Structure to design on (392 residues):
């Protein structure tokens, strides 16, 4: 193998994880260990019998020795695949609806961007005492992320969790995470220490999703290349129902075994003809810096900012172009040293200028922030944020 590549994902490996609050040291089974915590114990009582019956209905052996999880951001789905022998193909057990999504399509590259990562991960933590009921931690940042993301602030603490809320994770309902947590605990108890979790921007076999991604990436070659490598992994699994071998080169790019490259370009959604844009508030900014000691703070903190974005997303539904039901719009702006948000610019997500102008007009009414601090002095700081707009 070319030594420029690093093997990223194997189907099985022998690294033990641990549960928050009390490390797992072997001895009793991992399932027994999890049942020493109140929430997992309640989950097993509620769901184990139901899961066994569902496995029997689908002629699947209980419990599964191997599970594979894949999630699709735009389609808001999370799938659990299972099997009991290494050589066997995976079989789909269940598809869950993902409750909510922070961020836009595309990989996570910076702490605080509220992005859900995209790429190839595994479960490295079981948290039976999670703030969000129960949670399964992912090994973000992985090798690729460490190369391509912000070197100082790549972010972390990405989970599949309950409570149906999110600021950059994959949220399920409590009833759903009960099931996924039990399945993962049984797989780990039987020796699957690396439980793979692959996160894709879309389902590549859904035309509507492919069209949306094509429109999003047509003017962004790097994002287009990134998503095409993820599509290689999707295609491999769809063909063989086995996990692909994923490698990372020294530039952080993914390579998938057996991938022959794409045959055709994704469909592209028609865009609205250009028009004269609305004049928006801008400032000449001096002293802009990437590294700060304290990031800007929205009035009321992060939770208040998420509520503001949710409200804004709901307000923008009526401005979606005809036929569009969902949009993830990435916006950059600057919090000036006096706390004023200014210089708003839509980076990606929508090509409709009327929609973008209306969005920026509303964002310009955002309240002032507490500015970033560097060496005890306020400084301007560029921010990047994704806004989700989805019709009910």
């Amino acid at each position: 193998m070319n030594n420029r590549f690093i093997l990223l994902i194997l189907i099985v490996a022998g690294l033990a994880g641990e549960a928050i609050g009390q490390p797992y040291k072997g001895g009793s089974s991992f399932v027994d260990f999890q049942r020493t915590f109140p929430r997992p114990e309640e989950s097993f009582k509620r769901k184990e019998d139901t899961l066994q019956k569902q496995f029997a209905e689908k002629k699947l052996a209980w419990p599964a020795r191997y599970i594979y999880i894949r999630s699709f951001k735009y389609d808001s789905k999370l799938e659990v695949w299972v099997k009991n022998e290494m050589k066997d193909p995976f079989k789909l057990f269940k598809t869950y609806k993902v409750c909510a999504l922070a961020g836009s399509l595309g990989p996570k590259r910076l702490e605080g961007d509220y992005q859900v990562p995209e790429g190839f991960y595994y479960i490295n933590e079981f948290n039976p005492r999670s703030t969000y009921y129960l949670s399964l931690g992912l090994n973000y940042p992985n090798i690729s992320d460490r190369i391509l993301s912000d070197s100082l602030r790549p972010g972390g603490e990405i989970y599949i969790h309950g409570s149906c809320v999110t600021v950059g994770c994959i949220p399920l309902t409590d009833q759903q995470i009960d099931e996924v947590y039990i399945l993962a605990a049984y797989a780990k108890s039987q020796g699957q220490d690396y439980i793979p979790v692959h996160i894709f921007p879309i389902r590549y076999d859904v035309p509507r999703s492919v069209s949306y991604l094509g429109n999003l990436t047509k003017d962004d070659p790097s994002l287009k290349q990134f998503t095409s490598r993820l599509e290689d992994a999707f295609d491999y699994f769809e063909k063989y129902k086995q996990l692909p071998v994923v490698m990372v080169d020294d530039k952080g790019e993914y390579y998938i075994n057996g991938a022959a490259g794409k045959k055709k370009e994704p469909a592209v959604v028609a865009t609205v003809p250009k028009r004269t844009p609305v004049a928006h508030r801008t400032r000449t900014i001096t002293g802009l810096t990437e590294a700060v000691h304290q990031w800007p703070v929205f009035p009321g903190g992060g939770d208040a900012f998420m509520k503001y974005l949710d409200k804004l997303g709901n307000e923008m539904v009526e401005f979606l172009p005809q036929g569009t039901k969902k949009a993830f719009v990435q916006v950059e702006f600057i919090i000036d040293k006096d706390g004023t948000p200014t210089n708003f610019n839509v980076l990606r997500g929508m090509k409709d200028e009327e929609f973008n102008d209306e969005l920026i007009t509303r964002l310009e009414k955002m309240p002032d922030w507490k500015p970033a601090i560097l060496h005890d002095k306020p400084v301007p700081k560029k921010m990047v944020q994704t806004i989700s707009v989805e019709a009910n």
In short: The first strand starts at residue 6 and ends at 9. Residues 231 and 388 are 23 Å apart (CA to CA). Residues 38-57 form the longest helix (20 residues).
